Amino acid sequence: MATQALPASAAGTSTAQVTGRDPDATAHAGRPVVVPGGPLSLLLVGLAVFALAVAAVRATTSGEVSAWWPAAGVGLLAFLAAPPRRRVGVLLVVAVATLAANVVGGRPVAPSVGYGVSNVLDVAVAGWWLLRGRTSAVLETLDDVVRLLVGTALGVAALGLGVGVTAVVTGYGPFLPAAVGAMASHAAAILLIAPLGLAARDHGARRPPVELTAIAAATVVVLLLVFALPRSGPLGFLLVPVVVWAALRLTPRVVAAQLVVVAVAVVSLTAAGTGPFAGAELDPP
User: Fold this and answer.
1) For the packed helices 87-104 and 39-58, what is the interaxial angle rounded to 10 degrees?
2) Strand, coil or helix: what is 138?
Protein backbone atom coordinates (compact mmCIF):
# COMPACT_ATOMS: atom_id res chain seq x y z
CA MET A 1 0.00 0.00 0.00
CA ALA A 2 1.56 3.34 -1.05
CA THR A 3 2.12 6.02 1.60
CA GLN A 4 1.15 9.61 1.00
CA ALA A 5 3.83 12.26 1.53
CA LEU A 6 3.11 14.99 4.01
CA PRO A 7 2.81 18.55 2.71
CA ALA A 8 5.96 20.64 3.06
CA SER A 9 4.31 22.97 5.55
CA ALA A 10 3.26 20.08 7.78
CA ALA A 11 6.72 18.46 7.58
CA GLY A 12 8.40 21.74 8.49
CA THR A 13 6.39 22.26 11.64
CA SER A 14 6.11 18.70 12.88
CA THR A 15 9.21 18.85 15.13
CA ALA A 16 8.13 22.02 16.89
CA GLN A 17 4.57 20.71 17.25
CA VAL A 18 5.73 17.39 18.71
CA THR A 19 8.28 18.85 21.15
CA GLY A 20 6.35 22.00 21.92
CA ARG A 21 9.60 24.04 21.74
CA ASP A 22 10.85 26.75 19.43
CA PRO A 23 14.09 25.48 17.81
CA ASP A 24 15.61 29.00 17.78
CA ALA A 25 14.71 29.55 21.42
CA THR A 26 16.24 26.19 22.33
CA ALA A 27 19.46 27.08 20.51
CA HIS A 28 19.78 30.38 22.35
CA ALA A 29 18.81 28.96 25.74
CA GLY A 30 22.18 27.28 26.25
CA ARG A 31 24.20 30.44 25.61
CA PRO A 32 25.57 32.25 28.70
CA VAL A 33 24.24 35.72 29.37
CA VAL A 34 27.71 37.09 30.12
CA VAL A 35 30.23 36.02 27.47
CA PRO A 36 33.90 36.69 28.37
CA GLY A 37 35.01 39.67 26.33
CA GLY A 38 31.44 40.37 25.17
CA PRO A 39 29.67 43.73 25.51
CA LEU A 40 28.02 42.97 28.86
CA SER A 41 31.23 41.44 30.21
CA LEU A 42 33.24 44.50 29.18
CA LEU A 43 30.68 46.77 30.82
CA LEU A 44 30.86 44.83 34.09
CA VAL A 45 34.66 44.80 34.00
CA GLY A 46 34.74 48.53 33.35
CA LEU A 47 32.40 49.25 36.24
CA ALA A 48 34.38 47.00 38.59
CA VAL A 49 37.75 48.50 37.62
CA PHE A 50 36.35 52.02 37.87
CA ALA A 51 34.75 51.48 41.30
CA LEU A 52 37.79 49.76 42.79
CA ALA A 53 40.18 52.33 41.33
CA VAL A 54 38.14 55.28 42.62
CA ALA A 55 38.09 53.75 46.09
CA ALA A 56 41.86 53.20 45.98
CA VAL A 57 42.58 56.75 44.77
CA ARG A 58 40.34 58.40 47.36
CA ALA A 59 42.00 56.38 50.13
CA THR A 60 45.38 57.78 49.08
CA THR A 61 47.02 61.04 50.12
CA SER A 62 47.27 63.52 47.28
CA GLY A 63 50.45 63.11 45.25
CA GLU A 64 51.11 59.55 46.43
CA VAL A 65 50.47 56.16 44.82
CA SER A 66 47.76 53.89 46.21
CA ALA A 67 48.74 51.33 48.83
CA TRP A 68 46.68 48.60 47.15
CA TRP A 69 45.18 48.45 43.65
CA PRO A 70 42.63 45.58 43.44
CA ALA A 71 41.54 46.72 39.98
CA ALA A 72 44.78 45.20 38.67
CA GLY A 73 43.67 41.71 39.65
CA VAL A 74 40.21 42.19 38.18
CA GLY A 75 41.59 43.50 34.90
CA LEU A 76 44.05 40.62 34.59
CA LEU A 77 41.36 37.98 35.21
CA ALA A 78 39.11 39.61 32.60
CA PHE A 79 41.99 39.60 30.09
CA LEU A 80 42.76 35.92 30.74
CA ALA A 81 39.11 34.88 30.45
CA ALA A 82 38.47 36.68 27.15
CA PRO A 83 39.00 34.96 23.77
CA PRO A 84 42.15 36.15 21.93
CA ARG A 85 40.23 38.36 19.49
CA ARG A 86 38.50 40.19 22.36
CA ARG A 87 41.47 40.86 24.64
CA VAL A 88 42.18 44.21 23.01
CA GLY A 89 38.70 45.29 24.09
CA VAL A 90 39.52 44.37 27.69
CA LEU A 91 42.70 46.46 27.54
CA LEU A 92 40.78 49.46 26.17
CA VAL A 93 38.20 49.14 28.96
CA VAL A 94 40.96 48.96 31.59
CA ALA A 95 42.62 52.07 30.15
CA VAL A 96 39.42 54.13 30.01
CA ALA A 97 38.15 52.99 33.43
CA THR A 98 41.51 53.69 35.09
CA LEU A 99 41.79 57.12 33.47
CA ALA A 100 38.26 58.03 34.53
CA ALA A 101 38.78 56.74 38.06
CA ASN A 102 41.94 58.79 38.56
CA VAL A 103 40.23 61.95 37.31
CA VAL A 104 37.13 61.36 39.44
CA GLY A 105 39.41 60.63 42.40
CA GLY A 106 40.90 64.11 42.11
CA ARG A 107 44.10 63.56 40.15
CA PRO A 108 45.04 65.82 37.21
CA VAL A 109 44.28 64.63 33.70
CA ALA A 110 47.90 64.37 32.51
CA PRO A 111 49.11 61.83 35.11
CA SER A 112 45.75 60.06 34.91
CA VAL A 113 46.37 59.33 31.22
CA GLY A 114 49.82 57.98 32.00
CA TYR A 115 48.49 55.82 34.81
CA GLY A 116 45.80 54.43 32.51
CA VAL A 117 48.40 53.42 29.92
CA SER A 118 50.62 51.96 32.66
CA ASN A 119 47.77 49.79 33.94
CA VAL A 120 47.27 48.45 30.42
CA LEU A 121 50.96 47.54 30.25
CA ASP A 122 50.64 45.66 33.53
CA VAL A 123 47.66 43.59 32.40
CA ALA A 124 49.00 42.97 28.89
CA VAL A 125 52.50 41.87 29.95
CA ALA A 126 51.36 39.70 32.86
CA GLY A 127 48.59 38.18 30.76
CA TRP A 128 50.93 37.48 27.87
CA TRP A 129 53.33 35.59 30.13
CA LEU A 130 50.59 33.55 31.81
CA LEU A 131 49.14 32.54 28.42
CA ARG A 132 52.50 32.00 26.69
CA GLY A 133 52.35 28.61 24.99
CA ARG A 134 48.92 27.85 26.48
CA THR A 135 45.30 28.33 25.54
CA SER A 136 44.30 29.22 29.10
CA ALA A 137 45.92 30.17 32.41
CA VAL A 138 45.62 27.81 35.37
CA LEU A 139 47.01 27.50 38.88
CA GLU A 140 47.26 23.81 39.67
CA THR A 141 50.95 22.88 39.88
CA LEU A 142 54.17 24.37 41.24
CA ASP A 143 55.14 25.36 37.70
CA ASP A 144 51.87 27.31 37.45
CA VAL A 145 52.71 29.15 40.68
CA VAL A 146 56.16 30.06 39.37
CA ARG A 147 54.59 31.25 36.12
CA LEU A 148 52.19 33.47 38.07
CA LEU A 149 55.04 34.95 40.14
CA VAL A 150 57.17 35.65 37.06
CA GLY A 151 54.23 37.06 35.10
CA THR A 152 53.32 39.32 38.00
CA ALA A 153 56.91 40.54 38.28
CA LEU A 154 57.12 41.30 34.56
CA GLY A 155 53.77 43.05 34.55
CA VAL A 156 54.49 45.28 37.53
CA ALA A 157 57.95 46.07 36.12
CA ALA A 158 56.31 47.46 32.98
CA LEU A 159 53.80 49.27 35.16
CA GLY A 160 56.50 50.76 37.38
CA LEU A 161 58.37 52.09 34.38
CA GLY A 162 55.21 53.72 33.04
CA VAL A 163 54.16 55.19 36.39
CA GLY A 164 57.66 56.49 37.15
CA VAL A 165 58.01 58.17 33.76
CA THR A 166 54.51 59.62 34.09
CA ALA A 167 55.30 61.07 37.52
CA VAL A 168 58.50 62.73 36.27
CA VAL A 169 57.10 64.05 32.98
CA THR A 170 53.94 65.49 34.55
CA GLY A 171 55.71 66.79 37.65
CA TYR A 172 53.55 64.61 39.88
CA GLY A 173 56.50 63.19 41.83
CA PRO A 174 59.96 61.59 41.64
CA PHE A 175 60.51 58.44 39.58
CA LEU A 176 61.61 55.86 42.15
CA PRO A 177 58.98 56.32 44.89
CA ALA A 178 56.15 56.39 42.34
CA ALA A 179 57.43 53.32 40.48
CA VAL A 180 58.18 51.21 43.57
CA GLY A 181 54.90 52.12 45.27
CA ALA A 182 52.84 51.26 42.19
CA MET A 183 54.69 47.99 41.67
CA ALA A 184 54.09 46.89 45.26
CA SER A 185 50.38 47.80 45.25
CA HIS A 186 49.72 46.01 41.95
CA ALA A 187 51.77 42.93 42.79
CA ALA A 188 49.91 42.45 46.07
CA ALA A 189 46.56 42.80 44.32
CA ILE A 190 47.37 40.39 41.49
CA LEU A 191 48.82 37.71 43.77
CA LEU A 192 45.75 37.87 46.02
CA ILE A 193 42.97 38.20 43.43
CA ALA A 194 44.24 36.23 40.43
CA PRO A 195 44.12 32.84 42.24
CA LEU A 196 40.36 33.31 42.64
CA GLY A 197 39.98 32.75 38.92
CA LEU A 198 42.98 30.53 38.24
CA ALA A 199 43.00 28.03 41.12
CA ALA A 200 41.69 24.51 40.65
CA ARG A 201 38.07 24.08 41.65
CA ASP A 202 38.81 20.89 43.63
CA HIS A 203 41.92 19.99 45.57
CA GLY A 204 41.59 16.90 47.70
CA ALA A 205 38.58 15.87 49.73
CA ARG A 206 35.79 18.32 50.43
CA ARG A 207 35.62 19.51 54.02
CA PRO A 208 32.40 19.55 56.04
CA PRO A 209 30.47 22.85 56.19
CA VAL A 210 31.08 22.97 59.95
CA GLU A 211 34.83 23.32 59.45
CA LEU A 212 34.39 25.95 56.75
CA THR A 213 32.11 27.90 59.10
CA ALA A 214 34.61 27.56 61.94
CA ILE A 215 37.46 28.92 59.81
CA ALA A 216 35.34 31.84 58.63
CA ALA A 217 34.28 32.64 62.21
CA ALA A 218 37.87 32.39 63.47
CA THR A 219 39.02 34.79 60.75
CA VAL A 220 36.39 37.36 61.73
CA VAL A 221 37.09 37.01 65.47
CA VAL A 222 40.85 37.42 65.01
CA LEU A 223 40.37 40.50 62.81
CA LEU A 224 38.12 42.04 65.46
CA LEU A 225 40.65 41.31 68.22
CA VAL A 226 43.57 42.72 66.25
CA PHE A 227 41.83 45.92 65.13
CA ALA A 228 39.44 46.60 68.00
CA LEU A 229 41.73 46.29 71.00
CA PRO A 230 44.24 49.05 71.82
CA ARG A 231 47.92 48.15 71.56
CA SER A 232 47.13 44.92 69.77
CA GLY A 233 50.44 44.70 67.89
CA PRO A 234 51.45 41.19 69.08
CA LEU A 235 47.93 39.92 68.37
CA GLY A 236 48.50 40.53 64.67
CA PHE A 237 50.30 37.19 64.52
CA LEU A 238 47.04 35.42 65.40
CA LEU A 239 46.08 35.70 61.73
CA VAL A 240 48.90 33.33 60.78
CA PRO A 241 47.51 30.08 62.28
CA VAL A 242 44.03 30.83 60.90
CA VAL A 243 45.37 31.29 57.38
CA VAL A 244 47.56 28.18 57.70
CA TRP A 245 44.56 26.19 58.95
CA ALA A 246 42.60 27.16 55.85
CA ALA A 247 45.55 26.45 53.53
CA LEU A 248 45.94 22.93 54.89
CA ARG A 249 42.27 22.00 54.88
CA LEU A 250 40.38 23.94 52.20
CA THR A 251 40.51 24.27 48.41
CA PRO A 252 42.87 26.81 46.84
CA ARG A 253 39.94 28.88 45.60
CA VAL A 254 38.43 29.17 49.10
CA VAL A 255 41.83 30.02 50.59
CA ALA A 256 42.29 32.72 47.95
CA ALA A 257 38.90 34.17 48.89
CA GLN A 258 39.90 34.18 52.56
CA LEU A 259 43.14 36.03 51.76
CA VAL A 260 41.26 38.65 49.76
CA VAL A 261 38.85 39.24 52.66
CA VAL A 262 41.74 39.54 55.12
CA ALA A 263 43.65 41.91 52.83
CA VAL A 264 40.63 44.17 52.26
CA ALA A 265 39.88 44.25 55.99
CA VAL A 266 43.48 45.03 56.99
CA VAL A 267 43.92 47.78 54.39
CA SER A 268 40.51 49.36 55.07
CA LEU A 269 40.79 49.29 58.87
CA THR A 270 44.36 50.58 58.81
CA ALA A 271 43.33 53.42 56.49
CA ALA A 272 40.53 54.21 58.97
CA GLY A 273 43.15 54.68 61.70
CA THR A 274 42.60 51.51 63.72
CA GLY A 275 44.80 48.51 64.42
CA PRO A 276 48.51 47.98 65.05
CA PHE A 277 49.66 49.39 61.71
CA ALA A 278 47.82 52.74 61.82
CA GLY A 279 50.19 55.66 62.18
CA ALA A 280 53.22 53.38 62.25
CA GLU A 281 56.46 54.89 60.95
CA LEU A 282 59.53 53.07 59.76
CA ASP A 283 62.78 54.04 61.44
CA PRO A 284 65.50 55.09 59.00
CA PRO A 285 68.20 52.46 58.43
Assistant:
1) 30
2) coil
